[in-house]
Amino acid sequence: MVLLLDAAWLEAQVARLPAVDSPSEPYQQSEVSSEQAAGSGQRADHQSSIINPDRPPDARDGAFQKVIFDSTWLDSGDAGGFGITQLELKSVFGLPIPSRRSPLLVTPGFAVHYLEGPAGADLPPQVYEATVQYRWWKRFTPQFGIDFSVTPGVFSDFQQGTDEAFRTPAHIAGQFEWTPAAKFIFGAAYLDRDDVNVLPIGGLVWTPREDLKLELVSPRPRIAHRVFWRGASTDEVQDWVYVAGEFGGGTWAIRRAAGADDVLTYRDFRLLLGLERKALGNLDARLEVGYVFSREIQYASSIPDIRPSDTVMLRAGLTY
């Protein structure tokens, strides 16, 4: 579970957490179309935006909202290193429950993490995550709203079938709009991990200019600057360069080579440099390169902890 606080905060990645959308782009993927909209896949019109100011410009009419694919690679390095290749696919559906202004988002997802090394660690070749996130956003006043989600799922190598494989990460986060350019975020994420069970969410999102976003929010701070180069100079197509920090890791139920059941927990921290293209009504893409440090592998059994060496990572993602 990797904590992400951007256009899809706290998403699920080399063990990811539930997603909390970026207040700098209020609650993307969080609105089903208004009654005035018609036809699947169309962009929200001006009348829809007036009816619901929280409706993102890329919201689709109908239940289907988005499909998201992410691929992440952590280099294994030398014999003492620990490499991970992660593939994840998710789909986002919006249901008018309890209403179109405050819809329920349902996001089924599946991820596989291929593990490489370290030597003598007795790790399975891969671990999996099969989840369904239920998420709800409600604006109580023009300045204040709450985002809540729960993500039950199976986190295991599919060989160990005890109740340790079933986990229910969740989060609740509030947003207070101090000014149109400054928003305060506060809340907590329940990770349901063996190393860190609860993690605070908090900080300031400040947009001093339309081309600069300062998301000074734990656990994923990010500073993004829009670049106006050829092909990305309109509101429909935007390119952003950013630096960010992440807290990564997760917990999985596994079966060791000798047949004993155990629980594996992995943790790391990441510094990222990324490029993201947002294309309204078309394919969004992002590419990130990062440095991964303070890595640790823990077992629920008496096996000693392992601290792999620092490494580099690459991540690519597509959203439609």
Short summary:
The chain has 320 residues and is mainly beta. It is built from one helix and 16 strands.
Explained architecture:
With 320 residues, the chain is an all-beta fold. The protein has a single domain (46-319), classed as Beta Barrel (Porin), CATH 2.40.160.40. It contains one helix and 16 strands. A 14-stranded antiparallel beta barrel has the order 1-2-3-4-5-8-9-10-11-12-13-14-15-16. Strand 2 (83-95) and strand 3 (104-116) form a beta hairpin. The longest helix is centred in the first third of the chain and has 6 residues, at 46-51. The chain is globular.
Instruction: Give the spatial strand order of the biggest sheet.
Output: 1-2-3-4-5-8-9-10-11-12-13-14-15-16
Instruction: Write the CATH homologous superfamily.
Output: monomeric porin ompg
Q: Kindly, what is the distance between the CA atoms of the first and last residues, rounded to a whole number of angstroms?
A: 22 Å
Total DSSP helices: 1
Number of domains: 1
CATH class category: Mainly Beta
Reconstruct the topology from this structure.
Elements: H1 46-51, E1 64-74, E2 83-95, E3 104-116, E4 126-139, E5 144-150, E6 153-156, E7 166-167, E8 170-179, E9 182-190, E10 198-209, E11 212-218, E12 222-227, E13 237-255, E14 261-279, E15 284-299, E16 311-319
Antiparallel strand pairs: 1-2, 1-16, 2-3, 3-4, 4-5, 4-6, 5-8, 6-7, 8-9, 9-10, 10-11, 11-12, 12-13, 13-14, 14-15, 15-16
